[in-house]
Design goal:
Elements lengths: L9 H11 L3 E3 L5 E6 L4 H15 L4 E6 L7 H9 L4 H18 L17 H19 L7 E4 L7 E4 L4 H7 L5
Parallel strand pairs: 2-3
Antiparallel strand pairs: 1-3, 2-4, 4-5
Length: about 180
């Protein structure tokens, strides 16, 4: 379970997450969850597929929190998504490419946020700083593996789902989430 910093309630941490984290939100119905995701995490992609169905059905709202902890390419890929004119569409396009790559066994070729000579623009630098802050948050709450979903249950402490969860199990959890 995510460690709640001393002198902070789970509810306070939840509110802080909404203010402190940079995320891309998909959906506007159902419980809200924060999904920490890295473009180089195949299990993060599999969770995305499960969540996408629930989002389309209006059963879930997901705040995708881009992090870059798996490979050096994670940061420029996440920055490209985050700084896109339409981050939701960029995330969906990246996930489609990842899905195709997983099905064909060929690595996905995702957009990277650098110019033709490999330098970062001010917009890219801003996106990188936001992703780095997301990375620091994971460390602060003592999460060191992906994928991770944090949710606020109707009763009790913050909920944490680490690793793969089936659509059936996630659907069964929905009534317990705020």
């Amino acid at each position: 379970m995510a460690a709640v910093p001393a002198k902070m309630t789970p509810s306070d941490l939840w509110k802080l997450m909404g203010k402190k984290l940079t995320y891309i939100q998909e959906g506007h119905h159902g419980p809200v969850v924060y999904d920490f995701t890295d473009t180089n995490c195949p299990f993060c992609h599999l969770i995305y597929v499960v969540e996408a169905r629930l989002i389309r059905e209006g059963k879930l709202t997901v705040r995708y929190v881009p992090v870059a902890i798996i490979k050096p390419s994670s940061m420029p890929e996440a920055a490209a998504i985050l700084q896109a004119d339409n981050p939701v569409a960029a995330l969906q396009k990246a996930e489609d490419a990842i899905d195709k790559g997983m099905k064909t066994g060929k690595p996905a070729k995702l957009a990277r946020a650098t110019d033709a000579i490999g330098k970062a623009s001010p917009k890219t630098i801003e996106a990188i700083k936001k992703i780095e802050a997301n990375n620091v948050f994971l460390q602060e709450v003592d999460i060191d593996e992906l994928p991770d979903i944090i949710y606020l249950p109707k009763k009790g402490k913050l909920g944490l789902i680490t690793g793969l969860i089936s659509e059936k199990k996630l659907t069964e959890l929905l009534p317990q989430m705020q």
